[in-house]
Amino acid sequence: MLQVVLGGALIGLASALLMATHGRIAGISSIVQRALFLRGEESWTVWFVLGLMLGPAAMLLSGWVTPPNIDIDWGSIIVGGLLVGMGTKIGSGCTSGHGVCGMGRFSARSVVAVVVFMSVGVMTVLLMRLGGVL
Amino acid sequence: MNGAVSLLLGGLFGIGLVLAGMTDPAYIRGFLDVSGEWRPELAFVMASALVISIVFFQLIQPKMARPLLAEGFSLPTASQVDGRLIGGAFLFGMGWAVSGYCPGPGIASLAYLEPKAFGFVGAMLVGFKLADWLAPVR
Asked: With helix as H, strand as E and coil as C, how does A65-100 read?
């Protein structure tokens, strides 16, 4: 439990520091799009995405963690990925941008987005259970 | 300087995701699975991230004249709750439950060299483009 709370705190701290230093929202869906479709002075996004991979890579190489087993089937991974990409683009954010930064700013849009994606997530797992997929 | 700081902050964010368990899709599904073996720990991840975010955005950031390494703060200006926001969050919630990944943990999991993480991120990138095509901003 302590590890989970510490993990959350690091996510919050990194988000706060990104705003304090770069003046930007730590919204991963948006940062990834900017990193890939670079425009002007957005090169910080490339560094951020690299760090996002290198941090976990360092944990792995130092033997701190082992990769989780992914039991989820390929079909779900691909369909889920398409939906996550479309949804975060259309809805302007994901768990980090709306969930951590937006809610921290008391943005009504972000609170609505979080309530919608959390409840739809719960409903989807419930339907998968009822449908015998899980 | 900006790049190095950004790299470090991305690293910190990624380490936080791993410690929080967010890079394990089974854990995400477990959190959303209230009718099965519910694993509520994810609520604590969000709670502790939020405590820091709220303190920063409500008490510290308003007192800062400008960011330490940039000209100004770039904050979202939209305030309208509209169909795009709700529809997008709806699709995202479905995708999150179906795959067990959201964008940050998907990217962070590339470090595991896990083929399914590459599959997820690839599909997500296609999804970004599909959104531009199917639901362009007018």
From this structure: CCCCCCCCCHHHHHHHHHHHHHHHHHCCCCHHHHHH
